[in-house]
């Protein structure tokens, strides 16, 4: 049978069509990167993402070892399993990077974020905002006659839920730190 006479529904096998079955499912991953604390390192890490069109949902960075001059970058990103593997491999090739850990696959981890929310309102809305803050264990860190600034710490979805409830009560502004994460256990 020639190539022109292939039956309907039949599959042609060729060395060019033998691609592995890649997943199109988008996954959320938290990646911790230990880097040298020197100028330009963060720009190189961010450049890797922006240059390839990868999205960063959350980014935190701080020095974690003053004597060793090391910083930890925590990145929350979304992509297919193949994209996540590619990100980790490319991060590992950056000269100033010491370690790359995908906390999502290495085991159970703890993620926390800090947020401050300014809620403007009066009367019954103020009372309701205080009641909800108590339920969510948010602290009042500033108060005026017509506004509160709440501080809340927790998993990102907890902060999202608190912000959603504060919107109809007068949420005027929100500031979030981004995710900090560690593996659980030893």
UniProtKB/TrEMBL annotation:
CC terms in the record's Gene Ontology section: cytosol
EC code(s) of this entry: 2.2.1.6
Keyword annotations from UniProtKB, A to Z: Amino-acid biosynthesis, Branched-chain amino acid biosynthesis, Transferase
Gene3D superfamilies in UniProt: 3.30.70.260, ACT-like. Chain A, domain 2
InterPro entries: Acetalactate_synth_ssu (IPR004789), Acetolactate_synth/TF_NikR_C (IPR027271), Acetolactate_synth_ssu_C (IPR019455), ACT-like_dom_sf (IPR045865), ACT_dom (IPR002912), AHAS_ACT (IPR039557), AHAS_small-like_ACT (IPR054480)
Catalytic activity: 2 pyruvate + H(+) = (2S)-2-acetolactate + CO2
Annotated PROSITE patterns: ACT
Residue span(s) of domain ACT: 30-105
GO terms, biological process: isoleucine biosynthetic process; L-valine biosynthetic process
SUPFAM superfamilies listed in its UniProt record: ACT-like (SSF55021)
Top EC class, one word: transferase
Pathway field: Amino-acid biosynthesis; L-isoleucine biosynthesis; L-isoleucine from 2-oxobutanoate: step 1/4; Amino-acid biosynthesis; L-valine biosynthesis; L-valine from pyruvate: step 1/4
GO molecular function: acetolactate synthase activity; acetolactate synthase regulator activity
Family membership noted in the UniProt record: Belongs to the acetolactate synthase small subunit family.
Subunit structure: Dimer of large and small chains.
PANTHER family linked: ACETOLACTATE SYNTHASE SMALL SUBUNIT, ACETOLACTATE SYNTHASE SMALL SUBUNIT 1, CHLOROPLASTIC
Role according to the record: Catalyzes the conversion of 2 pyruvate molecules into acetolactate in the first common step of the biosynthetic pathway of the branched-amino acids such as leucine, isoleucine, and valine.
Protein name, entry field: Acetolactate synthase small subunit
Record organism: Falsiruegeria litorea R37
